[in-house]
Design brief:
This protein is of the alpha/beta class and about 200 residues long. About 35% of the residues lie in helices and about 20% in strands. The protein contains 8 helices and 10 strands.
């Protein structure tokens, strides 16, 4: 069984997986399984009031779990896959623990072959949060993983060194950038033009 198949199986079983993206390494679990999401918070030492995004293999796959306006769909068609997190209204299958009880969830479609393949093979959305203990630097190489995250993970997918720039987090409905990262200038221009 390949590392990718092992990782996908681990996610289906509720375990955690470290995976590469076009930004930094991510910590993946079944985003629709509250217990698996809880394990992500535990491994990261993350405050439960700080929501976690979900990753899907495509925009249509993501839309199965969120309700997106026409403007949000246009934005997603323009920027995804890519280093962008789009906040959308969640559907009922997205658990409260993932969104910290909020009605919106961050959506990622990573522009990275291994990340997309993992989402596809796991056959469910996975958590899209950096694979580090909260407050510590994001991880660009598996060798730099925090021991707590490595020990909590069933599989570490090695994709070499990643680019290291965080995704830009955008609330298209409000035309707001919550975190500036990759492509922030381009996103700003789109929001102004399409406003």
């Amino acid at each position: 069984m390949s590392d990718l198949e092992r990782a996908a199986a681990a996610i289906r079983e509720g375990a955690l997986v470290v995976y590469p993206t076009e930004t930094v390494y991510g910590l993946g679990a079944d985003a629709l399984d509250p217990d698996a999401v809880e394990r992500v918070f535990e491994a990261k030492g993350r405050d439960r009031s700080n929501p976690v995004s979900l990753a899907a293999p495509s925009v249509p796959a993501a839309l199965e779990h969120v309700r997106a306006s026409d403007r949000e769909r246009r934005f997603m068609a323009t920027f995804l896959p890519g280093p962008v997190t789009v906040l959308c209204r969640r559907r009922e299958d997205v658990p409260d623990v993932l969104t910290a009880g909020r009605d919106r969830v961050g959506v990622r479609v990573p522009d990275h072959e291994a990340a997309l393949a993992l989402c596809e093979r796991a056959d469910r959305p996975i958590t899209a949060t950096s694979a580090n203990v909260s407050g510590r630097p994001s991880v660009r190489r598996p060798d730099d993983l925090d021991p707590e995250v490595r020990e909590a993970s069933a599989v570490v997918l090695d994709g070499g060194e990643t680019a290291g720039t965080e995704s830009t987090v955008v609330d298209v409905s409000e035309g707001t950038i919550h975190r500036r990262g990759a492509q922030a200038g381009e996103i700003e221009r789109w929001l102004e033009r399409e406003g």
